[in-house]
Structures are given as structure tokens and as C-alpha cells.
Amino acid sequence: MINTNRRDFLRKSVSVGAGIAVSGLVPRRIFSEESSAFNRIAYRQLGSTGFKASEIGFGCMNMGDSELVHAAIDRGINYIDTAHGYENGRNEEVVGRVMKTKRDKVFLTTKVSHRRPKNMLNMMETSLKRLQTDHVDLMLLHVTNSRDQILDNDFIKMFDEAKKKGICRFVGVSTHSNQAEVLDAAVESRFWEAVLVGYNHFSPPAVGASIEKARKAGLGIIGMKNLLNPSTWPWKKLDDIRTGTEKEKGITAAQALIKWVLEDQYVDTTIPGVTSFEQFDDNIAIMGMPMKFGERRSLIRFSEALKGEYCCGVAGCTGCKGQCPRGVEVNDINRCLMYAYGYGNVALARENYASLPESSRVDVCINCDECSVKCVNGLDLTRNITRAKELFA
Amino acid sequence: MNGLMLKRYIRCVVSGTAILILTGHFAPAVAEQTRFLNESFPDGFKRLDSVRFYNSGNLFEYINGQAVFYLSYGFKILEHGVYRNEGKEYTVDVYELNSRLSAFGAYRQQRDEDSADLDAGCEGSIIDYLTVFYKGNYYVEIIPTTTESEDVETMRSLAGYVVANVPGESELPPEVTLFPKENLIPGSERYVDENLLSYSVMGRGLTALYDQGGDSELRVFLALPANNKEALKVYNGFNDKIKNSSLAKLEEAQGIKGETPYRGMAIMYIRDRYVFGCLSIKDEGAANRVLTGLYDMLKKKRLVQ
């Protein structure tokens, strides 16, 4: 599928891009007839690139085993994501060991950080050496979070130069926060060709709307953080929780969350992180599988259960910010309670509470019988403040 | 899904994700009190601002998905500071992990292969854009914030002051020394706290590479389950992955050999709470000699009966 000769691919990229530009860009699932005997692999057009990416790709971060990558590619996974900075470059080296023989079977993406703008082109060249290839398919500007970064002329010039030099075929950005603004700016730029975006069941609707807009404008959309915040949601726990009855087995909560993302037709592929064969098998198992009623219901109930019980700060909710006439930031109090009630770690809760400014501690609430702050999701803040008084005051 | 199951499901998910929902978006604790990162060090190092502490709930906010890597090594807390010296700036991150082995594992995974050795802690390495070392349960990174700050000697000096503040042993974790030295590829030992050989059933353990001629190395592994019962689970779990298997024996240790999908021929033995073996075998005799050496070390250290 991919030619590894720089001159050839540059020529072909132009013609493919022009062809796609007039073809309407309708994203859809394409089921592979030639896929392996294990499972049916589903593919989707990746924006305007002309490439059919497996709808679940391979997020290599934290993965140190090249055999996993071999296995993924052999089974039809063809979208590989790494970054210059992962494990200080070792991750690219692990992927590179596979690229030595399987480069032509995949769409290879890496990323460089904007923290050292003067050094970016050197970093890209270093990445190529580690990856044992003369080009990557997609080079991303890593961890962008504002319109200004996306429209920054210096970055655009540098990535344009990278394309002209044949370092990459396509250019894009990754965004972990402020996603809607970044997506909209990427469209506005008329330069970036793909966005790797944090997107999950708890994302605000604005992110979904901007994804649709960007995809319709021809940008490739790669979803990440499908399992919310991976640092605080261990895979093991997710794998232990299944939808369906024991007899039906069902799927794991992790699988259900990935399925939710894949339900969005404007997402071209996803890159859940994989560090074991078992996780990889779970991912393969749900490809091309529509979400069942029971699974959808479970996720909805899961979401409903969280509303009114837990603060949804992770989804970007700031609904209570600035509401308290005495200046207490209830989000902060909720966080401290979380350490006590979620982690079961009262010492940690108290430690965090102690780091809050005095003006934001519940001592200020001493004369309030009822909290005047209203949670947009119905969280009972009077109850939480009472708990906080008991625990911290 | 019946009502009871649904309730259980929701309860499990809610309790499991409560951490996530409430901790994802909050700032790290800023503290005047430091553990290891003094306000200043000799030779003109001045810390900018207060140190910041990150825990497992907000590490993600600092290093994003890379947090998963440290969490997989039992991450406890990170102390972060930025130092300036004659216009050059360096971030210093001190990660406390759950064991010496984890600090060793993180270091071996994160160091740059092209680095020079650094005399700091148990092992250290230095290259113009990165200095890393570990000591006791602590893994430390020093990174220049700009290319203009890339100065090996300045970083070496800073590393010297930081390492003096970090507690813990400056020797290799004892488990790492169990691998026989003959044909061992220097520096190839690795430790993971989970998913040994990329199988969750294998749990935590060590690997090391041995030269066996040609371009493929012999990969030796030593799983470190908590007890004999867990060891049996590991053994049986990996046994399921081996095809065309037959029995093997190494003195008192029972074993099995066969083919693996992506790692060629494998041999695995179990003795007490240790499961060890090797993959990508080209010469069975040579592989067994390495495993015999490993088994001898286990006996010598009285780790097996």
C-alpha cells in the first residue's frame, strides 16, 4: 500500500490528495475480505490521505515488545502510533525493529514536541533513524492545546519543510485538552491534515461536533484516550468489569468504551495503548462489531450513575467555578474528598486539602447551613461540604 | 443483564472510576517543603519556584499518557523542580516507585542507548539532552529545557547534588545478578512489574538477552510470582501459549518446551516460586546451559530448595 521511496510517495500523495478532495470524503467502515482467520478487521478511510486504516490501531506508548507489533500487523492492524519522546526514544526503536521488515504494511505515525522548536527537524530525522525508515506517513505536532499553536506560522513552516524534505507524507497535530478549539483551528489553518484527539464517552458534545466538522473538511481523525484518563483507570479493573450476564460473558468495560468511540462515524481510527497480548486480543475482538443495546445501556447507566454522585471535572466541567460568594472552589473540595472516598486514603486527602489556599477551605463554610453552589450535574454539594467539614475542619 | 448484575456492574464501575473522575483535572500540590530538590545547590544552581508534587491521581496532568509507564512500576510520588544555572535551565524529576527493581526497570527502559555512563546512584547515563539514574526506589531524570541548555558537564554536576539527597542502595537489585554472565549481552537485563513477555498472566519478572550467534538473541526470563501457588498459575498460563509441547527437566525443576507464535522455540521450568525459561532458541543445548547457570544461582542464593 505504501511506497517507501520518498520521491514516489510525494508524487503519489499529491495525486491521491487531489482525488480525495473532489470525492466527497464520506467516512465509512470497510470490512476486509482478506483479513485473517482470527477476526474480521474493519477499516476506515483516514481523512484525505487515501489510506484505509484499521479502525483500531496500535498505540505503542509504554510498549516495549516488538513481537506485539509483529502480531498486530500480521492480524491486520495497520495504523501504528509512536512518538519521538516516548521512553526517551526507545519506543521508536522497538517499533523500528519491526519496520525493518514490515514498513510497507502500515501507516506509521510519530510526533515531535513543540517544546524545542529550533530542534524539531533534527528530532524528526532522529525519529526516522530510530524507526528504520526513510519517512513516516504522518508527523504530528505533539500536545497542542490552543488555536494560537495550531496557527503558529513557525510550526507550519517547519512541518511544511518536513513534508518537502520527504520526512513525512502528511502532517497533523495531537491534542489532549481544549480539543474543540484545536480541531476548529486545524480546519481553519487549511494546512494540518489530521488530528489525534482525546475523545471518549465523557467528552463534551462540542468535541464531537468539532470532530464532525474537521472530518467533513477532510482531516483524518484519530481518537485517543478512549478509556478516559489512563493513569487513574487501570486496565485490570476495566477488564474485570463486563457487560452482560455471566452466561453471555459480554464485553469488558474497556471494550465498551472503545466501541462507543467507534460508533462515531467521523472517527477514522483509534489508538488504545497495548502492552499485552491479552489487551490486543480484546481490541481485535470488537473491531467491526456494532454496539449492542445492552452495552449501550450499560454505558448510559454508568454515565447516569456518575452524574449526581461524582464530579465530572475530567470531562472539562467547570460549572461550579466562581459560584461560591465566599470564594470556595467546590471542585477542589471534591477532589480532596475523592482521595478519601475514592482511594480510601484519608492521609492523602488531608495532605491535598492542606495545600488549598485558606480562602478555599471549608472553614469558610462554617456559617452556611446549605451550599449555595449548584452542580450542573446534580451533585449534592451540601452533603459533600458536610463530609468535608467532618473530615478536614 | 439481570438487576443484581447490573447493580454490581454499576457499583464496580463507579467505585473504580471515581478516582478518575475527580482527579483528572486538578493541579499538582505546590510545596515549599522539599524532599530532595533543595532551593539551591553549590556551583550556582538555583531552583525556580517551589517544587511540585504529583501523585498517581494527577501525574497524567504532567506527563500525559507516559504516566501509564510509571504507574506500571508502582509509582508513588514525583517531586518536580526546575533549576537555573548561568542562563541554562533543567527540569529535575524524582520518581518514587514501589521497589528497587522498579527503579531499575524504569531506568533501563528510559535511558538512551547512545548515552555515556554516569557515576550516580546504582546506574546512570548521560547524553546532551538527557541524564537519568536510579538509587534505591528512586528513578531520576534531568532534562535541559532548551537546546541551549544542553551541557553534559552542567548536568553531571547537578546530578551529583541530587543523588546525594536521594536515599537508598547504590547496588544492583539482587534479583538482577542471578543471570549467569557468560554470553550475557551487557546491559540487556530488564524488569517489568507486570505483563512479563507481554502476557498479563506472567506478572512481574526479569528478562535478559544472550548472544547465541547470528542476529537473533536468546531471551531468558525469570518470573517472580509471590508464592508457589502463583508460580503454578504463571507456569500453566504460559504453558497455554506453547504449541507442540513436550516435557523437559532440569535437575529437580520440571519443565516444558515447544513453539511460541512469535518467539520461536521456548523452554520453561518451574521450581518452588520461580518460573524461568528462554525464548527464540537456536541451540537447545546452549539455552539449557544458560538456564542451568540461572538455576544454580537460585540454589546458591537459597531461593529454591
Features:
heterodimer; A: 393 residues; alpha/beta; eight-stranded parallel sheet; three-stranded antiparallel sheet; 15 helices; 11 strands; globular; B: 305 residues; alpha+beta; nine-stranded antiparallel sheet; seven-stranded antiparallel sheet; 28% helix; disordered N terminus
Helix and strand sequence of chain A:
HEEEEHEHEHEHHEHEHEHHEHHHHH
**DSSP strand count of chain A:** 11
Q: Largest interface, per-chain counts?
A: A-B, 78 and 58 residues
Mean pLDDT value of chain A: 80
Strand content of chain A: 5-15%
Radius of gyration of chain B: 22 Å
Ends distance of chain A: 64 Å
Multimerization status: heterodimer
Number of helices of chain A: 15
Low-confidence stretches of chain A: 1-27, 33-38, 229-238
Which spans of chain B have pLDDT < 50 for at least 5 consecutive residues? 1-26
Overall spatial form of chain B: elongated
Overall shape of chain A: it is globular
Largest sheet of chain A: 8 strands, parallel
The proportion of residues forming helix of chain B, as a percent range, comes to 25-40%
Please give the radius of gyration of chain A in angstroms: 23 Å
Biggest pleated sheet of chain B: 9 strands, antiparallel
Name the structural class of chain B: alpha+beta
pLDDT averaged residue by residue of chain B: 88
Percentage of residues in DSSP E strands of chain B: 25-35%
Write the layout of secondary structure elements.
The complex is a heterodimer of chains A (393) and B (305).
Chain A: H1 6-21, E1 29-31, E2 42-45, E3 52-54, E4 58-59, H2 66-74, E5 79-81, H3 90-102, E6 107-113, H4 120-131, E7 136-144, H5 147-151, H6 153-164, E8 168-175, H7 179-189, E9 194-198, H8 205-216, E10 220-224, H9 235-240, H10 253-262, E11 269-270, H11 277-286, H12 293-306, H13 330-341, H14 346-354, H15 381-392
Parallel strand pairs in A: 4-5, 5-6, 6-7, 7-8, 8-9, 9-10, 10-11
Antiparallel strand pairs in A: 1-2, 2-3
Helix pairs in contact in A: 2-3, 3-4, 7-8, 13-14, 13-15
Chain B: H1 3-23, E1 29-31, E2 40-41, E3 45-54, H2 59-63, H3 67-71, E4 77-85, E5 88-96, H4 100-110, E6 116-117, E7 123-127, E8 130-135, E9 138-144, H5 152-165, E10 190-192, E11 205-210, E12 218-223, H6 228-239, E13 243-250, E14 253-260, E15 264-271, E16 274-279, H7 284-300
Antiparallel strand pairs in B: 1-3, 2-3, 3-4, 4-5, 5-9, 6-7, 7-8, 8-9, 10-11, 11-12, 12-16, 13-14, 14-15, 15-16
